[in-house]
Automatic annotation (TrEMBL):
Keywords: NAD, Oxidoreductase. It holds the Pfam family Aldedh. Residues 13-482 form the Aldehyde dehydrogenase domain. This is aldehyde dehydrogenase (NAD(+)).
Length: 500
């Protein structure tokens, strides 16, 4: 199909409902490099005035945003369901995460604390202040089209930065709806600008913005490959972006685990959101004493999952986010075929068009669905062990010793989220200590982080930057330290300090 164009000749974003591809949610002209740079210029120009607003007043806009989002919760969740196929119950949870983020930061407008620090000399005071960085470019993914953007936008704005936001093309309508609520909450137009652009335009525009000194911080959520490109651009300008990248998140089932709980955890971690969370479960590592039993129970549970129309209550997960995502997932399945036996009858690998599952509740002719897949017998040398699949696919591996479990949990190079199911605090704490992931769950899922804990990963999952809670303030401010000397004579640090 030729690429659609706007009357003006511009290329179009066509965002479709993935449960019914004939339903076009929104069509917008794609911005070019000029639009992106012009937005950054406007935001950069508006920043000093925004930073001069008293922080409690900026906090008020955050409070207003949270209230407006709460008032429009169902409508926003409905739009998320329609645009990216997230089951409505989960979409409500996502909108709640935006509200929680606003709740957390509205008070920060009255804190944004600095410190008073003792000096080594008399008649001198030391202070620290948080200063906004300037203008942030925030680039977000489609799988959490409201919550994850709010993790960047809310603290960035609260701290006195202005923002250019480039949302996913697959979630253009949700982005516009959220933007409208920020506006209605009192955030001025040039303080938060939104531009629709494709990947190549974004890299080119970002590069130019950095060259021209228009962007002082990048917030990026997306794939590790894209994060690397963003990081390279930032690094040339000595900037450290806030990165939230992929994962190959392990879930360890220890010998003493409550297997029913572990199965529920694996099911939710692996298949909720059709496995399209950065924190989704990649590989179950099951102790050899429980491996076969666990696999059988997980298989039976997967068999009962209802997949289909995301508006229906009984549906566990809906379609993938869009056609491009289905293609990506299909190519991940290629990694499965040569090597592995699929576990029992549950591990179908059947995709739309193949024989339907017994619990399919969608329309495979209009939607882009992927059936749940479990792959047993994965080995550390397999590509699947180290490849994020971003879809409803869970690998299962067997381990013998705790050391082996730790090695397998860390060995793929990602380090976002990990879970362990065990009854032993000693095992749980030892795992926490030795696991390289940024987020660890004990007897809970790899997904579902709460909105006020540090969120982020290490290794291929990110550069150690963290979002959420007070920790994200360090991403959007820099510390300014102040020496205030009222001795009236020159006091030299290190040299004029009294000896004892
Ligand atoms: C993501 O997939 O990019 O922890 C974020 C979770 C959600 C956020 C996921 N609160 O599963």
């Amino acid at each position: 199909m030729p690429e659609p164009t706007h009357a003006s000749g511009a290329r179009l974003i066509v965002s479709r409902n993935p449960a019914d591809l004939t339903d076009i949610v929104v069509e917008r002209p794609l911005g070019g490099v000029e639009e992106l740079v012009a937005a950054a210029r406007a935001a950069h120009g508006a920043q000093p005035e925004w930073a001069a607003w008293p922080a409690p007043l900026r906090g008020r806009t955050v409070q207003n945003t949270g209230r407006l989002v709460a008032r429009n919760k169902e409508a926003l969740a409905g739009l998320i369901t329609r645009e990216i196929g997230k089951p409505y119950g989960e979409a409500l949870g996502e909108v709640q995460e935006v509200i929680d983020t606003c709740d957390f930061f509205l008070g920060e407008g009255r804190r944004l604390y600095g410190q008073t620090v003792p000096s080594e000399m008399p008649d001198k005071q030391l202070f620290t202040y948080r200063k906004p960085l300037g203008t942030a470019m925030v680039i977000t993914a489609a799988n959490f089209p409201a919550a994850v953007p709010s993790w960047y936008l809310v603290p960035a704005l609260l701290c006195g930065n202005t923002v250019v936001w480039k949302p996913s093309e697959s979630a253009a309508a949700v982005a516009e709806a959220l933007l409208a609520l920020f506006r209605a909450a009192g955030v001025p137009e040039d303080v938060l600008r939104l531009v629709h652009a494709d990947g190549d335009t974004t890299y080119a525009g970002l590069g130019q913005c950095l060259e021209e000194g228009l962007v002082q911080k990048i917030g990026f959520t997306g794939s590790t490959a894209a994060g690397r490109r963003v990081s390279e651009l930032a690094g040339r300008h000595l900037q450290s972006p806030c990165l939230e990248l992929g994962g190959k998140n392990p879930l360890v089932v220890a010998e003493d685990a409550d297997l029913d709980l572990a199965v529920q955890g694996a099911l939710f971690s692996g298949f909720a959101t059709a496995g399209q969370r950065c924190t989704s479960l990649g590989t179950v590592l099951a102790h050899r004493a429980v491996h076969d039993e666990f696999l059988a129970r997980l298989g039976a549970a997967v068999e009962d999952l209802v997949v289909g129309d995301p508006r229906r209550d009984e549906v566990f997960y809906g379609p993938l986010i869009g056609e491009r995502y289905l293609q990506g997932f299909l190519s991940s399945l290629e990694l499965v075929r040569p090597h592995h036996r699929l576990s029992g009858s549950t591990a179908t690998g059947r995709i739309t068009g193949d024989s339907p599952r017994k619990n399919f509740a969608g329309d495979p002719d209009t939607g882009v669905y992927a059936h749940p897949t479990i792959v047993a017998g994965v080995r550390p040398e397999d590509e699947l062990y180290r490849t994020e699949t971003f879809g409803p696919l869970v690998s299962v591996m067997e381990y013998g010793s705790f050391d082996e479990a730790v090695r397998l949990a860390n060995g793929h190079g990602y380090g976002l989220s990990a879970a362990i199911y065990t009854d032993s605090p000693r095992t749980a704490f030892a795992f926490r200590e030795r696991c390289s992931a940024g987020m660890i769950s004990v007897n809970n899922s790899t997904v579902g982080a709460e909105a006020h804990l540090p969120f982020g990963g290490n290794g291929l999952s990110g550069n150690g930057s963290r979002q959420s809670g007070i920790w994200v303030l360090d991403q959007f401010t820099s510390w300014q330290s102040v020496n205030w000397d009222y001795a009236g004579t020159l006091q030299r640090a290190q040299m004029d300090v009294r000896e004892i």
